[in-house]
Write a structure and sequence with these properties.
CATH class of the largest domain: Mainly Alpha
Order of helices and strands: HHHHHHHHHHH
CATH architecture of the largest domain: Orthogonal Bundle
Pfam families: BPD_transp_1
GO cellular component, one term: plasma membrane
Radius of gyration: 22 Å
Number of helices: 11
Keywords: Cell membrane, Membrane, Transmembrane, Transmembrane helix, Transport
Subcellular location: Cell membrane
CATH topology of the largest domain: MetI-like fold
CATH superfamily of the largest domain: MetI-like
Shape: globular
Largest sheet: none
Structural class: mainly alpha
Number of domains: 2
Family: Belongs to the binding-protein-dependent transport system permease family. CysTW subfamily.
Oligomer: single chain
Length: about 260
């Protein structure tokens, strides 16, 4: 009994430490105080100010750039990672283990090392840094995560389904589209969401590949804003909206996954 109470207390303390900062940001997004922690009464002025793109043109530009880069990078990395996962799965056991180890290196490698490496690569190739280099960089470090998300679904799949489809007259492309893709779709969706989140969150790789053409993402905007001695108050409602949207997506996806399991 005592052990159970200790474990539950530990769990609730851990959850409190994880979500209390987010809760504080959400709560203080409903007051117009310039300084976080100074409650001046309930107000939606920060949300109204955020929607006024003229007043915060650079912040909204950074947000749009962040979302656009994340969507492109997540889509491309999902396609590349899924194809790579299928290729890795069909390798011999020893080769599969070796390639899997190589795939894990970018994940375990420090972001700053990846950022410097890509920076030096783009400079050596004479590529002007900007939107394109940031997207390429994000695809590079997001793809291994997609591979790790898709591989377990392939391992759970009946290996005879693909061969059975071929024996029944399907072409390899038809078997891929109608047999393998439906089986690995949950893994692809998980990989897409993971890549999307990682791309939005990234700073270290972005700051090394963004160049000096005036392009900004949320992470670089917040960094530059913090160096000035404070954060733009409108970042609070923006952060709250992003959190609520991601939370809603996770709830919808989990409910769909639960319904699919019940239907099986």
């Amino acid at each position: 009994m005592v052990k159970k109470i200790i474990m539950q207390t530990y769990l609730w303390v851990l959850l409190l430490m994880l979500y209390a900062p987010i809760a504080i940001i959400v709560i203080y997004s409903f007051t117009d105080a310039k300084v976080l922690g100074n409650w001046t009464g309930f107000s939606l002025d920060l949300y109204k100010s955020l929607l006024n793109t003229g007043a915060h043109h650079s912040l909204m530009n950074a947000f749009v750039n962040t979302v656009l880069i994340a969507l492109i990078a997540a889509t491309a990395s999902t396609l590349l990672g899924s194809i790579a996962a299928i290729g890795i799965y069909n390798l011999k056991a020893r080769s599969r283990k070796a390639v899997g180890f190589v795939n894990s290196i970018p994940i375990l490698n420090g972001d700053i090392i990846t950022g410097i490496s890509l920076f030096l690569l783009f400079v050596s190739l004479g590529i002007t840094q900007g939107f394109t280099t940031v997207v390429l960089a994000h695809i590079t470090f997001c793809t291994p995560y997609v591979v790790l998300s898709v591989l377990p679904r392939l391992k759970q799949m009946n290996p005879n389904l693909y061969e059975a489809a071929l024996d029944l007259g399907a072409t390899p492309m038809q078997a891929l589209r109608k047999v393998i893709l439906p089986e690995i779709r949950p893994g692809m969706l998980s990989g897409f969401l993971l890549a999307l989140t990682i791309s939005i969150d990234d700073f270290a790789v972005t700051v090394f590949t963004i160049g000096n053409q005036g392009l900004e993402t949320l992470s670089t905007y917040i960094y530059a804003d913090a160096r000035k001695g404070g954060l733009t108050p409108e970042l609070r409602p923006l952060s709250a909206v992003i959190f609520i949207v991601i939370l809603a997506l996770l709830i919808i996806i989990n409910r769909r996954a639960g319904k699919e399991k019940k239907g099986i």
